[in-house]
Amino acid sequence: MQLKRTYLFLLGLILLSSFVVVQQNETLSKIALLTTQTKFEVGNTVVLKFSTSKSTKPLLYCSNSYGSTLVNATLNNKILEYNIPENITKKIGVLNWKLLDKNNALSGKLIINPKAEVATMETYIGPPSIEAGGDDYTMLVVIPTDSLDNPVPTNTLVNTKFQFLASEENKDIVTNNLIAFNNIYSKKESGRMLVSSESLGVNSKEFTINIAAAIPTDFTISASRPHVYADGNQITTFSTSVIKDKHKNLVSDGTFVTFFITNSDGNILKSTGTTINGIATAKMIHPDYADTWSIKAYVDGMSESNSISLGYKQVIQDFEVIFSEKNRTITVGPLQSFMKQMIPDGLHVKLNIFKDNKLVNTLTKTSFNGYVTFNLKPAIYQNDIYNFSIETVGLSKDFKTKKLW
Amino acid sequence: MVGLSKNIMRSILILSYILLVGLIISGVSALFSYLNTGADRSTMLHTEIKKVDQYLPKVNWQPLQNEGRPMDNQTLNALQNDYLDAWYVKQIAYKTNKTAGIKDYYTDSARENLFAFIERNKAENISIEGTTLNHNPTLEFFSEDGQLAVITDRNVIEYKRVFKTDTLVIETKETSSYKIVFLLEDGFWRIRHMVKEAAETYKETPKTVSVNSLNIKGINYYPQANPWDMFGEAFSKDTISKDFKIIKDAGLNSVRLFVQYEDFGKATIDYKKLEKLKQTLDLAEASNLKVVLTLFDFYGDYAVMNWTLNQRHAETIVNAVKDHNALLAWDIKNEPNLDFDSRGKVNVVAWLDSMIDLVKSLDAVHPVTIGWSNTQSASILKDKVDFISFHYYEDLDKLDEAIKTMKTEIPSKPLVLQEFGLSSYSGLWNPFGASDEDQANYHKKIQEQIAANGLQFMSWTLYDFTNIPKEVVGRLPWRKRAQEHFGFIDQNGETKPAFDYISKN
Question: Could you tell me how many helices (H) and strands (E) chain B has, helices first?
């Protein structure tokens, strides 16, 4: 009986002790966070400390703006220390962590705050060219970043500065959504505007905005020519007045101007030029017969000129035609210009050959030393009766029933 | 005689000569035309490159009220594509610890931050499989010259699985908010700054659907002529309509249908198939039958990188039929526990978990279940599903015990015996197989057990099939033959004795 009691007692003790052990185990495996600081400035060392009573070193999972990783612990005097890697502590934003311990589901988050420090002023400006007049604008976007390439805190002051002609202005803006921006409007004048910005003592580079003239207004044109004769040789030059926008700014060099020339038959000739210092010029060769031109210029889709009229006088009043060599050689000339001088080489003369009132062929030649000679080969133009007509400088002469032999 | 054979010789010679010349000419011309083929000029423009769906998380843009220039849809689309690609290349980079692709989507200085992580994780043997399931971006700013944009992406649901020396150490689902600055460089919207502004552990709010009225007495259904290819070319409304009438007349009230993942077009749903599915549901409604729709049949990948594609697949189908009167419940996946060995239990369960969340977020009305292939797996995700489905092809004597165990593990949710049956095949490949009478006895007995245990049921299956695709049970003839004879109606259209026990009325 005694034995049985002792036995039961012992059994009970063992049972009891096992409970004690279990309880001890539970308290032993307790891990608690010691670090109370939850906000750190970017770039500073971050160490998360936990008190532990075990010797196991669980991993710490942590994740920031760009990625996630696992951190190993060091155990010192029952304190688990996790050195957060530098590539995490040097980026701003939320850092969330989790302790990978089965019995202690510890997790939390730290905030890595940006520094009020600017190392670089990342500046974007565009569009780089805007129109004068005060309606058009370009946008300056600044991303101030600290030495660790983080955006600066919200509401950091950025001072933007502009120089244009005589004026130098500045405007304060603040960062929001990681950036600061400002719209820069043009003035009435065209020219180049210089832009820069400054934040916390750091200045950006200089940026240039080209303020181009607005669209051209209507203009006038004029023509100049060496003489008024239609010699098919000299050149008439057309030029515009100085083309300006509505704010009296010269239009950009290279503005394309098209001159439309309408002759008395209603045909259109076209010549083009681009402006330099607001003036565009274009050229056109004289006609070779008396004509009247009406000229008007356009900057396509934007503005137009007045219309001017130019008359060209007949340069040759009459010419002679000589048939020789069995009527197979036809000499036209002398072709004499307004001062009885020989016409410059290159005047077109056209010979129409008719047989039985049907056009057989048309020969065209250009003058040389004031004469044009046509040779009719017997192999092509067999012996027969032909009619001829000769046209030049708008004149025409007919020769009926010429016999070739 | 000699002259004749000479003539024959001559004609043979001439014919062979013509043949030879013909062959040489065709050979030379083939060579000539080969040398004349070059790259098609149109390929210079690379117009043939098609966008491949690889990362399609749910993106829900907030109304555009940004500062700066108004955003057009085309640019917004380009921005979204590059943003998602940036996430995609990041996920791949952290999984493989390689930097391929990063430079296309992160600017020079931003990519350094990723490289630092990759370097560290590589050195420490850490790899991370992750995906994002939900994005809610707001466009904050778009610069006047269209070269810079800022967005805030709130409540991004991130799923991550972290491995250390190839062992899974943590699986985590977080909700984070990011502010991101993009620059347009070389035609890419590249990330310049990325700042995580908030992060929380993803909190599940389990939404349960009332299943009190659930009373499933049904059958797994495939048409006899085209099993496992129900919505293909052989789709016939008449056949299905007749079959549904047979099922209804037999005293059953529901059918279980299967939507195959690849067959339905993966992430971009084949609308013709979806239309056929809707027509099938219409027929079920006309026959007064309800439908348990099993998604993701024949899908077995579960890779984290494909989750977003799977979710777009499910989203389209759920949205298309969630309001249909014939719909009874969603079965997320058929027998996923069979993939535990090959794909890893963690993978499969996490996939199911996320998929349940998705389906419930789209359809708060219909209950959700998973068709486990055995009773042991039935308690997995028991808190997330609305009712428990399991399949039972084992010894009926052990069924009562198994149900008892399940009921203690899962006391509060209805149990549906979603597949059961006996093949009545006995023949060359299994001379000692069950007979039609054995099958009838089996159904008689199991119906008694179902009634005694208060289960709901769906039997396998209406028909004996003649043509089983190899994807179902493989190519082995003894398996195919067995699979062909589970029906209540045989291959000649005659009801088998078991048909009397198709339902316990």
Answer: 13, 14
Position B258 pLDDT exceeds 70: yes
Considering the domain architecture, whether residues A39 and A96 belong to the same structural domain is answered as: yes
Q: Which one of A59, A124, A149 has the shortest CB-CB distance to B143?
A: A124
- Phi/psi zone of residue B441: left (φ > 0), alpha (ψ -120 to 50 degrees), beta? alpha
User: Same domain, yes or no, for A96 and A125?
Assistant: no
Contact B230, B222 (CB under 8 A): yes
Q: For a pLDDT cut of 90, what percent of chain A falls above it?
A: 72
Report the pLDDT value the prediction gives residue B353, as an integer from 0 to 100. Answer: 93
Judged on CB neighbours under 10 Å (0-12, 13-18, 19+), B453 is middle
Distance (Å) from the C-alpha of residue A66 to the closest C-alpha of chain B? 6
Cβ-based contacts of A138 with chain B (< 8 Å): 144-145
> Quick one: how far is CA A189 from the chain centroid?
22
How far is A385 from A405, CA to CA, in rounded Å? 9
The C-alpha atoms of residue A51 and residue A58 are separated, in whole angstroms, by 12
Closest residue in A to B174 (Cα–Cα):
A96
Domain membership flag for residue B136: yes
Using CB atoms, which residue from A61, A124, A125 is nearest to B162?
A61
- SS3 for B188? strand
CA distance A79 to A76: 5
- B323 membership: H or E segment, kind and range: none
Selecting from B150, B169, B170 the residue whose C-beta is nearest the C-beta of A178 gives B150
Residues B223 and B229: their CA atoms lie apart, in Å, by 9
Q: Please say if the pLDDT value at position B359 is more than 50.
A: yes
> Is A8 part of a structural domain of the chain?
no
Q: Does B67 touch chain A (CB under 8 A)?
A: yes
Mutation target to probe the A interface, by most A beta carbons within 10 A, among B195, B197, B203 is B195
ipTM for the complex shown: 0.82
CB-nearest partner of B169 from A66, A70, A143 = A70
Residue closest to B260 by CA, chosen among B291, B232, B299, B223: B299
Please tell me whether residues B315 and B414 are part of one structural domain. Answer: yes
- Neighbouring-strand partners of residue A256: A274
A375's CB contacts (< 8 A; 6+ apart) are A328, A329
Which residues of A sit within 8 Å Cβ distance of B?
59, 61, 63-70, 72, 85, 87, 91-96, 98, 100, 107, 109, 124-127, 137-139, 141, 143, 149-151, 177-179, 181, 183
Q: CA of A92 to nearest chain B CA: how many angstroms apart?
A: 7
| pLDDT at residue B263 greater than cutoff 70 | yes
How many Cβ pairs within 8 Å bridge chains A and B?
A: 125
B377 and B476 in a single domain? The answer is yes
| Residue count of chain A | 405
Cβ atoms of B480 and B471 closer than 8 Å: no
Instruction: Name the pLDDT band for A68 (thresholds 50, 70, 90).
Output: very high
Best of B87, B102, B129, B143 to disrupt the A interface by mutation (most A CBs within 10 Å)?
B143
Residue that terminates a domain, selected from B166, B201, B236: B201
Does residue A158 sit within a domain?
A: yes
Residue B353 domain-assigned (yes or no): yes
**What tokens does A35 get?**
């670090």
Question: pLDDT band at A23, cuts 50/70/90?
Answer: very low
pLDDT of residue B426: 85
**B87: DSSP letter:** H
